[in-house]
Amino acid sequence: MFESLSDRLNNTFDRLRGKGKLTEADITSAMRDIRMALLEADVNFKVVKDFVAKTKERCMTADVMESLTPAQNVVKIVLDELTELLGTTESKLVFSNRIPNVIMLVGLQGSGKTTAAVKLAYLLKKQGRSPLLAACDVYRPAAADQLATLGGEIGVPVFRGDGAHPVQIAQDAVREAIDKLRDVVIVDTAGRLQIDEQMMQEAVDIKRAVKPDQVLMVVDAMTGQDIVNVVSTFAERTDFDGVIISKLDGDARGGGALSVRAVTGKPIKFVSMGEKPDSLEPFYPDRMAKRILGMGDVIGIIEKAQEAADAETVASAERMLREGFTMNDMLEQMKAVKKMGGMKGILGMLPGGQKLLNQMGGNLDESVFAKNEAMIMSMTAEERMRPSIINGQRRARIARGSGTTPADVNQLMKQWGEMNKMMSRMRTMAQQAGAGKKGK
Ligand code: GDP
């Protein structure tokens, strides 16, 4: 998602950086490029017009043009404006004191509503809540079955109310939640392929009947210009508190996702990046803007690492600090990288990483992992614990055993050497910090 937009914006910035001092004509031309890039990404034309006007006005000031690094300033302004377009700060779900809280999802058919309901239930369950899913989409064939199956997979009960009217199902689900001590009801409502009066009225009726604490609209990231009509009608009729953008993992141009906040004034609360229940993530405008501009999402990487890290990993990190870095640790690290979505996933979040990936045609040779793994597996237990004993003879044997070359083994030894050096530096820092604390 956003790849071609990202490429085009970066090309514009590269051209500016190549210039040194900027003239008004340079900025006008850069703004024209940005305008075209956004329009081609299918961002709503009015949103583009406002965005470019604001950005241009800020770039045309003497502060920017006469600064020592004008191109950098322009990039910073585009980043600021893009962050603002996406909503500036994170917008969390708001819960009331009422039990159960009711969250209602609305949106067109196929937007990803049913799967979003399940993903949200999964997320809330992980946060210690006990959700109940209410299957109020009684028109789409198998919608309730789909919800029941997915709910079963994540261990969240689904209230179906077979045969009843959707308004009745929603009300009964709330009663069921009170009986069964569930503290959040997530209501999946019916969608249509297009805006339809009956669908709107039903959503209004359900809303009136169960008075949801939050109404969230699910919007498919592939929606382009048309998004304005759809969200405006929902905003008028049912109103909603926030947006879930689904299918952000796809390769659509993303214009709808970029326009929705400006068009509705409602915050994007979550984005969905896949079909699995764990693929719903809170939305951070600043991080997304940085990713679009190829500046990397460093915080995202740290969080992913924290998620992948279990108690065992933490314990082994502590041991590494105490006893040094072994080949077994290196093996563990490679496994951890795989768990975080592989090098491709991580690289995509690094500054300039997406650009690098694109240059490589999206291909990243992960076979180097397999090679390293084979070499480590060919080492004796002692060699793994004390890699420094691996001499020329041992290297030749490891290469033979793993079907690699001594040059490959040398490469691995070099990597280990670097990491070991880093680890001992960290050990010294940790010791100094510890001594500092004790001294106080
Ligand atoms: P509904 O009609 O709005 O309830 O839509 P569904 O929840 O059934 O989703 C429609 C299709 O989109 C299904 O095949 C989902 O698996 C798929 N889908 C939903 N969200 C995502 C997402 O974030 N990424 C991808 N790749 N597919 C999604």
Automatic annotation (TrEMBL):
Pfam families tied to this protein: SRP54 (PF00448), SRP54_N (PF02881), SRP_SPB (PF02978)
Domain (SRP54-type proteins GTP-binding): residue spans on this chain: 267-280
CDD domains named among the record's database cross-references: SRP_G (cd18539)
InterPro entries linked: AAA+_ATPase, P-loop_NTPase, Signal_recog_part_SRP54_M_sf, Signal_recog_particl_SRP54_hlx, Signal_recog_particle_SRP54_M, SRP, SRP54, SRP54_GTPase_dom
Subcellular location: Cytoplasm
Binding site for GTP: 107-114, 188-192, 246-249
Catalytic activity field: GTP + H2O = GDP + phosphate + H(+)
Keyword list, A-Z: Cytoplasm, GTP-binding, Hydrolase, Nucleotide-binding, Ribonucleoprotein, RNA-binding, Signal recognition particle
E.C. no: 3.6.5.4
Source organism, top-level taxon: Bacteria
Stated family: Belongs to the GTP-binding SRP family. SRP54 subfamily.
Quaternary structure, from the entry: Part of the signal recognition particle protein translocation system, which is composed of SRP and FtsY.
Domain notes: Composed of three domains: the N-terminal N domain, which is responsible for interactions with the ribosome, the central G domain, which binds GTP, and the C-terminal M domain, which binds the RNA and the signal sequence of the RNC.
Role: Involved in targeting and insertion of nascent membrane proteins into the cytoplasmic membrane. Binds to the hydrophobic signal sequence of the ribosome-nascent chain (RNC) as it emerges from the ribosomes. The SRP-RNC complex is then targeted to the cytoplasmic membrane where it interacts with the SRP receptor FtsY.
Name of protein: Signal recognition particle protein
Organism: Collinsella ihumii
